[in-house]
Amino acid sequence: MFSWRSRGGGFPLNPLHREAIAFTATVRKEWQVMMRYWPDTTMIILETILMPIAYWAQAAGFEGGDPNASEAFAQRSGTTEVAGFIYLGWVVYMWVTTIVWGPGMSLRKERMQGSLEPLFLTPVSRFTLLFGPSTTQLFPTAILFTVVGLMMRYVFGVPLGAGQIIAGVLVVAASIPLLFGLGALVGVSVMRMRDSSGLNSALRGLIGLFCGITFPIAVLPEWVQPISRVLPITQVVDALRAAVLSRAELAATWSRSLILLAFGAVISASAMVLLELTLRNVRRTGRLGHF
Amino acid sequence: MVNLVLLTPLYQLALPTLLLGSAFMVNGSATGLARMTGTADLAGWIGLGMLSASLLVGVVDSCYNTLEADRVTGVLEHSWSTPAPREAYVIGSVLTGSMFASAANVILLAFAVLLLHASFSLVGALLALPVAAVMVAGNGGFGYLVAAAVLGMRRASALVEVATMTVVLFSGVTFPLTLLPDEARWPTYLLPGTWGLDLVRHLTLSTRPQAPVPAELAGLVLTSAVWLAIGRRVFLGTERRLRVAGTLTQF
């Protein structure tokens, strides 16, 4: 696919060419790691399928066959499809988790393995370092969304037509830069910490509480709701539910997708700036390899 | 340990469950839950579920971390060389984990009472104490099994985590077990937590019990005793096997 040699027979001089080679190598390496430890990916897929069943059972218990309770949920959530509501929230949550714990920890893993300093000595761009690992995750992400769609349609009978599927795919595609940016931001942030496992657990907890993953935002305290609504992950979850469950107009889905793309661009740019600032700091303190 | 038995159950289980339940409230009352269980006290119902889950998770993690830490740091053989009975490590971990979980749950339940208007019967709470003690004994059986897994398997964390989550979910912690079809419900009767939690909820919240109270008490005592006996036997057998093979500290 890419020529390793320039016309003179040496290493390619075109920077874009070199960067593409480095990016491809990063993706290939992450793919090999993912295939070697395939049980991890399998567990994530199983968790994505099984955990929402527990939440759906909770919801069934709280609904208790009372039509007034069902109506109350529909008013607060905007849909009567409880299983679809929970599954779509949960699959986004698992997607975020995969990015944060996977690519989001890649720089820290490199540091612990002792390869971070040599990595930063290479001419590879910060873009490749931050976003290369996340690209590999698109494959298990596609599997996650596919199995969730199948569960919703064939196990829980959620009506899913072609239009809703296309709208859902549009929202997911528009959310990719946002999730990549989030992974990069987390990856850079954890470089400043000795032990980031506490941060990652707290992040998961906060996302679960403030982004409407398994419950409607409307049940949160009133002063929290505006904060929740502007969070990027909440925007992803809301847009996906609106597109798939509430059958939003294509124009509305398109405009929300553009907002998600804008979010992604801002977060990704912030991650690259933060990485540059972090590198300046560690160059001064000499703590690049410390953990 | 505080993070494990207080904060993590709070933001991973208690609060999301509570908020999901709030989504079904009609005029501030959990009418759906009242139809299913006999109580509209959503916070109290969930709070007691968290108590049961924390007691089990506290025991499992205490047993796991005690032995795993000793093995990884290379002091397990030294501990095993002392005249202390091997079971002392497991029983000590069970009691430590239960103690921390109980303390954390006092705080959680106080939070539920003061801020979420949960209401528990005082007499029922006192009667529930021996029930909780029997549940801890049953959890001891799981503690033995976890210890056996840590010693016998090289990496037991995934299995322990999945098994613990399964037991927690199917003990009625977050949803009424009456929702399950009959074929799926009978395995839940094998768990001490199923009987214990149902009894505690009945005594403190006046919920509808799944079976008559004497039957539930018998179920709790029987399942706790059986799991304790099985767990102890498996642990002692595993420890003997490792002693003979000389692979105690290998991982």
Q: Kindly state the mean pLDDT of chain A as a whole number?
A: 85
Morphology of chain B: elongated
> Major β-sheet of chain A, in short?
none
- What is the N-to-C succession of helices and strands of chain B? HHHHHHHHHH
Beta strand count of chain B = 0
Q: Could you say which structural class the secondary elements and strand pairing of chain A correspond to?
A: mainly alpha
Low-confidence stretches of chain A: 1-7
Counted beta strands of chain A: 0
Terminal CA distance of chain A: 38 Å
Instruction: Report how far apart the termini of chain B are.
Output: 24 Å
Give the overall shape of chain A, derived from the CA principal axes.
elongated
Q: Percent range for helical residues of chain A?
A: over 70%
Percent helix of chain B: over 70%
Radius of gyration of chain B: 19 Å
Which chain pair has the greatest contact?
Answer: A-B, 35 and 31 residues
Based on CA atoms alone, the radius of gyration of chain A comes out at 21 Å
- β-strand percent of chain A reads under 5%
What class would the helix/strand composition of chain B place it in? mainly alpha
Count structural domains of chain B: 1
